[in-house]
Amino acid sequence: MNNKRLLSLDILRGITVAGMIMVNNGWGESFEMLGHSEWNGMTPCDLVFPFFLFIMGISCYLSLVKSEFKPTAPVIRRVVKRTVLLFAIGLFINWFDNAIWGDVLCFDHLRIWAVMQRIALCYGIVSLYALFCNHRYTIHTVIVLLSVYAAILVLGNGYSQDASVNVLAQVDVNLFGSEHLYHKSAVDPEGLLGTISSVAHVLLGFYCGMLIRKRETVEQKVLAIFVVGTVCVIGGYLLSYGLPLNKRIWSPSYVLMTCGLASLLQAFLMYVIDIQQKSGWTKFFHVFGVNALALYVSSELLAILLGYLGFSASVYDAIHAVIPALKWASLTYAVYFVLLNFVIGFVLYRKKIYIKL
Question: What percent of the residues of the chain are helix, what percent strand, and what percent coil, each to the nearest 5?
Fold first, then answer.
């Protein structure tokens, strides 16, 4: 039963990572649903990263429960080491994107934050919470974190697109300097203060991991996760009237809505795979799921490299010559890039190589 349960989690992780790779690698003019919302609102593209953080929360619980959550020196070292490694990989991706174009000494304007850095901080903080805090108060902790962050947004003009008055932007600018931040929106979407709500996000996944572990039957597990998902979606919808959904600032309503949708999808997959025993369709996503972070990192580096070599432009031009519609050509290129990364993952999968970052 444990293996089947973990298979459904791997499949959700695989769906999410394949989605992350696809939405990050459209070429030219993409469909709106494959792009992030500019500010308030939410597109399907805005679901993939939060789904990954939610899954990471589940994985944190299922991983650390093996050590009975005892904060021994080896366990703490492992958590710290992985946190530093993930953060360093994120910095390396940002550096490589500059260095390949000749800007090797880009440290005075190297972006500090990005997806991997947020994953690193959330993983480290939630893992330490798991080792040192009473899990009984997980939901209480989530409520406190989201309440504090909501107060910061309301009192600090967190929804303003004017970076000069937005507290999220100002904290990042004053602590790290404008040159080290993302410049395509009013705030850095992976900035420091947004980590508060992101940690709450991962803790909701952690709570679901606890439910999955403690419920006796698969039916009970599915029901528990379904209830959490329903409550979160309703809560996120209601909260969005005062605090709109916003991926850029990782708003509290966005946390609840995306965690709720991820919970519902996880419950559905557990029902289909574990109860209905319908898993014949899962191999494609299983390939992505078992090497999720490794394939995400390789996709980022590969996209940078192929872009530099001009190969990406050549492939897109060939696609566009056959498919004149720009948005469909962009979608086709994105699917091609997902399949390219699937080939890399499939080689690892066949050789039973699982890279744990």
Answer: 70, 0, 25
Q: Which residue has the tokens 């309440």?
A: 147
The SS3 of residue 134 is coil
What's the whole-number mean pLDDT along residues 338-343?
97
SS3 at position 42: coil
Average pLDDT of the chain? 94
β-partners of residue 40 are 246
Two tokens at 202?
Answer: 């991962």
Residue for token pair 């910095």: 91
Q: Any residues with CB less than 8 A from the CB of 154 and at least 6 apart, and which?
A: 243
Q: What is the CB neighbour count within 10 angstroms for residue 321?
A: 9
Going from the C-alpha of 190 to that of each of 96, 110, 116, 180, 239, the distances in angstroms are 19, 14, 9, 12, 22
> Under 8 Å CB-to-CB from 71, ≥6 apart: which residues?
131, 132
Of residues 26 and 77, the one with the higher pLDDT is 77
pLDDT of residue 2 exceeding 50, the answer is no
List, in order, residues 6 or more apart from 135 with CB less than 8 Å away: 69, 210
Q: Are 354 and 291 in contact (CB under 8 A)?
A: yes
pTM above 0.90, yes or no: yes
Burial class (CB in 10 A: 0-12, 13-18, 19+), 339: middle
Give tens-digit pLDDT for 5-23: 568 999 999 999 999 999 9
Find residue 41's DSSP bridge partners. Answer: 246
CB 50 within 8 A of CB 189: no
Which residues lie below 8 Å from residue 65, measured CB to CB, with a gap of 6+? 213
